[in-house]
Amino acid sequence: MSSAFVYAVARTPFGRFGGALADVRPDDLAAVAVQGVLAQAPDLDPAAIGDVAWGCANQAGEDNRNVGRMAVLLAGLPVTVPATTVNRLCGSSLDAAIVGSRVIETGDADVVLTGGVESMTRAPWVLPKPSRAFPAGNVTAVSTTLGWRLVNENMPAEWTVSLGESNEVLGEKFSISRERQDEFAARSHVLAHAAWEAGFYDDLVVPVPGVDLARDEGIRPGSTTEKLAGLKPSFRPDGTITAGNASPLNDGASAVLLGSEGAAATIGRDPLARVAGRGVAAVEPPMFGYAPVEAAELALVRAGITWADVSAVELNEAFAVQSIACVDSWDVDPEIVNAKGGAIAIGHPLGASGGRILGTLAARLRESGDRYGVAAICIGVGQALAVVLENVS
After folding, report:
1. Is 297 exposed, middle or buried (0-12, 13-18, 19+ CB in 10 A)?
2. Which residue is catalytic, options 56, 193, 326, 378?
3. Which of 5, 150, 318, 373 has CA atoms 20 to 30 A from the CA of 272?
4. Dihedral through CA 142, CA 146, CA 152, CA 155, nearest 10?
5. Which of 56, 90, 189, 326 is catalytic?
6. What mean pLDDT, rounded, does the chain reach?
7. Is 90 a catalytic residue?
């Protein structure tokens, strides 16, 4: 079997909820990411792309009806390039990359484009259809932006609590203090700002036409533990989770170009990294924030390495508390985790985040020259994904 390699990565800046990208449809955002990653491989004939796997968590509005295929068409690729859209909630674009890597390894295609998109701003309200015509009572529109909705009454109530409440429970379980969470969050902002200032993201982020947004919109370089300590808890009166130590609602898209080793000539550039291992894990739904622990361990085993071999970790920061719980459980130096900032600062547009962390990981390994890195992401309803990359650049 052929190995799968990362050849190029790109993403849009991530916008705040209701911010600079609010007027941009998700399928248009996805098309920008597609065009951005292909611009890094100008010698590649788009007709040579064997398949496209695209991630999106919502798919209830303008991102419906296979937004991956819509992105391919809007980006101007040949109509002969096929595409599918996958949904593993927050892990959708990392799942898309995993799907694409398997397609390459089995020999079904030499070049696969993957990525993901989410516009949490433009996520619509939905109404369930009535069971019979002309209901006399009121109906409630349900927001599809985030979290459980239209819950099946057979689902245990303890599984369907809010994401925030789930992580308050997780924080209690592992005795993770509010101060540690605020410290972690402040670090995310400081490191993200420093990475932008140093030019790290300049080659990874492509502008959205017609939008005045050069950098991720949610980064607050002046964040400190002391400032974050002044924010009120969001889910419990006496809780530890606030708007400052959790990821925000965001809009954005990411893309990752994958290929076989022999595809270098077709793509017109050398690969950046090899997909060395993959892991998927599941736990009880409220413990979803802790699921990356097992997913990463599985990916390391399948890569044939241990944490001692790992020099960079990109862990999606859904909440500071769950990120801390994961890092505490791994045999890893916390300083190598999210060294260029994380989702608390950069943002977490659900379907795009997996592609972002995978792309950032490949770029970090290229910058440092180190060999192995891990990208991991927690997923609502109790799942997680992880990928090990081996630097070959």
Report:
1. buried
2. 378
3. 318
4. -150
5. 90
6. 97
7. yes
Cα 375 from chain centre? 10
Q: How far apart are CA 385 and CA 363, in angstroms?
A: 20
Q: For residue 6, what are the CA distances in angstroms to 193, 239, 306, 347?
A: 26, 41, 22, 23
Q: Residue 42: count other Cβ atoms within 10 Å of its Cβ.
A: 8
DSSP designation for 205: B
Give the pLDDT score at 90. Answer: 97
378 is known as an active-site residue: yes
244: Cα within 13 Å, side-chain hemisphere: 26
d(Cα 389, Cα 94) in Å, to the nearest integer?
A: 13
Overall fold of domain 4-122+248-391 = Peroxisomal Thiolase; Chain A, domain 1 (3.40.47)
Q: Residue 348 catalytic?
A: yes
Q: Which amino acid is at 274?
A: R
- The secondary element (H helix, E strand) that includes residue 98 is helix 92-105
Task: Note the pTM of the prediction, 2 decimals.
Answer: 0.97
Give residue-wise pLDDT tens across range 10-31. Answer: 999 999 999 999 999 999 999 9
Distance CA 340, CA 77 (A): 32
Q: Tell me the backbone φ, ψ of residue 321, rounded to 5 degrees.
A: -65, -40
Rounded mean pLDDT of 175-181? 97
C-alpha 392/C-alpha 355 separation (Å) is: 19
What H or E segment, with its residue span, contains residue 374? strand 372-379
Kindly name the residue from 56, 189, 193, 348 that is annotated as catalytic: 348
